Amino acid sequence: MTQPTDIRGEHMHAALSLAAAGVPVLPLRAGKVPFGNCRACAKNACGGRPNMKTPGPCTCPKPCHGWAAATTAPDTINSPTWRRAWREAAAVAYHPGGAGLTVVDLDNAEAIAWARANLPATRTVATTRGEHWLYQGVMQSANAVRPGIDIKSSMQYARWLGYGTGATVALPDAVRALAVKEPLPSRRTPQTLTVPLRGRQGECRHRTPTYLDRGIAMAEQRITEARSAIHATVYCTFLAVLSTHGRCGCLTDAHVARLFTAAQAKGETPRHCTDAWTNARTALGM
Questions:
Q1: Strand 25-29 relative to strand 169-170: parallel, antiparallel, unpaired?
Q2: 230 neighbors 267 (Cβ within 8 angstroms)
């Protein structure tokens, strides 16, 4: 196959090379933004990939639905529809999570200095203003985890800027912890219920660890499996957990962190988690 020689042809050639290596790719327009949905998929009329958060049943052959359009299929990348997109494309992007990677996007010198002091060295790719640090492993994406630092992995795209230098190391806990950091005190931070309270019928039933662990696991599952009305589901789940387990003093920071992690994996921000938790406590008079 003869490849075009202009810059758009180079974008498609790079995309095909990446796809052959198992990296899902998509074209970007000027401004580092993906192509918008076509008319058939506008406002998710096709029923696929609601809010671009989860891949859906849509089989549109065009580069629709943002990050969810990323593919490794050469026939798609080189199709007439995608060729038209490549002619307008300004850059190549890829889905890090689909490639089994996490990108720590360091946007300035201060962020780079922090990373060098706190994170394991790994493969590094220079960007316009900073660096991308690539780790082997997938996690939830999160923006502004620290000043000048974003995390791009699942359900997110990153601009392809080359292979970089250095060896890619395993995703460390220090990076995972950035996405589940303690929520900012926008109103009231969730309080840790660490003082055990005795009920009228004797010792608290949560002293059997299995009961409480099963309740938290069920709450995590309910949030994770939600397909719509995520914020309402998170609030109702928090309300149910607090109603059942919140008055005896057995809930700990670890339990709350598990619920917040599940909620943030579905797109809730730390502030929304804090607000939902606070509102649930208020509704129960706690």
A1: unpaired
A2: yes
| Per-residue pLDDT tens over the stretch 220-261 | 888 988 877 788 888 888 888 887 777 777 788 888 888 998
* Residue 158: φ, ψ to 5°: -135, 150
The answer to whether 134 touches 178, Cβ cutoff 8 Å, is: no
SS (H, E, C) 192-252: CCCCCCCECCECCHHHCHHHHHHHHHHHHHHHHCCCCCHHHHHHHHHHHHHHHHCCCCCCC
Q: How confident is the model at residue 216 (pLDDT cuts 50, 70, 90)?
A: confident
Q: Are strands 131-136 and 123-126 parallel, antiparallel or unpaired?
A: antiparallel
Using CA atoms in the order 15, 17, 21, 27, what is the torsion angle rounded to 10 degrees?
0
DSSP tag of 168? -
CB count within 10 Å of CB 43 equals 6
**How far apart are alpha carbons 175 and 103 in whole angstroms?**
10
Q: Report the length, in residues, of the chain.
A: 286
**CB neighbour list of residue 28: distance below 8 Å, 6 or more residues apart:** 34, 35, 89, 90, 91, 92, 93, 157, 159
Q: How far apart are CA 160 and CA 11, in angstroms?
A: 10
